[in-house]
Each structure stands twice: as structure tokens, then as C-alpha cells.
Design brief:
The chain has nine helices and five strands. Strand 4, helix 6 and strand 5 form a beta-alpha-beta unit. Helix 1 packs parallel to helix 3 and helix 7 packs parallel to helix 9. The chain starts with 6 loop residues before the first strand and ends in a 6-residue tail after the last helix.
Amino acid sequence: MATSARIVVADAGPLIALGRLDALRLLPALFAEIQVTATVLAECAARPGFIDAQRIELAVRDGWLKPCADQFETPSGRLDPGEASAIARALEIEAGLLLDDRAAVVYARALGLKVIGTLGVLVLAKRCGEIERVAPLIGQLQAGGHYLGPSAIHAALHAAGEAAN
């Protein structure tokens, strides 16, 4: 059962990160609907041999990760095509946005969108009882080469009640 009636539009970064963690299942547990544009899906599928791409494809086949059309009318040219399409779609349907790139997050928030990133999903999942701890998952992301800023890690651990005092 979704803990939020919120619809979110996902960018590739968080889907790939959650796919690497084998934690994509958290999304339908936390959100009523997760949409992904054709451009974002293409970015996710660009490395078909990678486990994250396979898990994302499976989520689409299972029907809970919902492909949708691209909309390119609003976003800035400084965004990559996936970010631009996700932001435009979220604006069009008044949805939340699952997005990690700092510049894109700042831009999306300036447009009035509600944004949650990979770390925010993990914190929300812990608060909703979907996972026990955030710290080990952050460690797995870092070990896999996913860059996470020290302040973002500290904020996530603090929000999850796992910060060292």
C-alpha cells in the first residue's frame, strides 16, 4: 500500500541507484504512481548488461514503473535530456519529481516542483518501515562508485536517526 497518494516522475539517476541496490521495490511502496519518460527509459537502458538496467526493465514489465511521453517545452537548455523531460512531465501533470542532480534539483524547485532524491527515498522508506537502516545502503552506493556529498550523507543519516553525535 502506498504511503503517499503522490505521483512522481523519475529521472534516470535515482532509478539506476535504486536498481543497483535492488531497492526499486521501495518506490511503489512509497508512491501511488511512478512515471518515467521515454528519454529517461532510454538512458536507463543504455547499458543493458548492467543489473540496474535489467531491474528497471523488469519494473516496467511488471507495470508499476509507467512509461509516459516526453514533454520538452519548459526546461532550461542546461539540463540533460532526461532531466529536462522528467521536469517537463512533472510540471505538466503536477507531480513530484525523483531527481538527484544538484543543478536540476535547484532548477526544478525554482519552478515550484516537490523533489525527492535517492537519499530522501531511503529516509522515507525507513520512516515507513520498508527498510531497517539507511547507512548500509549509502555505503553500498558509495562502494559502487555513486557520488554522494558529505553534507547530503550527513543530512540523510540525521533524518533517518542514524547520525553519529
